[in-house]
Fold:
Amino acid sequence: MTSANPAPADNAIDIGAHIRDAIREAIVERRLAPGTKLSENDVGSLFNVSRTLVRAALQALSYEGLVNVEKNRGAFVAYPSVTEAQQIFATRRLLEPVILREAAPHIGKAQIKELRELLAEEERLTNQRGAPARRAEIKASGDFHLAVAAISGNAILMRFMDELVARSSLVIALYGQSVISSCGHNEHQQIVDALEKKDVEGACTLMLRHIDHIEADLDLRLTKKGGGLRDAFHV
Ligand SMILES: [Zn+2]
Structure:
């Protein structure tokens, strides 16, 4: 934005954040397929806002790696390559043990209770059928990793994890094979058990194994198709 532009009203910032969050959620929940064109006009009319606000929201999502903005072609839901997919999980293997070690000193009874409640919700969703339940379950399994990052209290680590979990969902949408959760529920359980016993190194080992399993479930030769913009928002 240049200095010639007037400062946007708080309301415009809120609307921009709302659009960004709604599109991010649709990508993370796999309602929007990788590669889907996000035309400024279509998104603008869906949310009933100006193209300027849409452009800013799409630009923000491109910084998170969820949207590609291409000159003269417009914006698309990112379509991660095999190399990118491997780099995302390699980064998670580096970062998530660090997050566990950072979170460990802050983990008491209340935090264990909070994590167990998340796992119970995951389990409830796993037992439900249908695409909406499946999407909610994928989101809930990502929420576990984000919750551990939140306990660390380190806002920078939380932002890194936000991006990595969102980009992982995109990779899983493209290359995932499992019908059931890409995040094994039992593995989350074992990590919480280790944390409860203050076995931080054990939790780190389990986390690395868990990330290996998520990656092993991907078939990096396959690509899948998903819904378009209007399907994603039920228009
Ligand atoms: Zn997981």
About this structure: Residues 1-7 have pLDDT under 50 and may be disordered. Strands lie at 37-38, 67-70, 74-77.
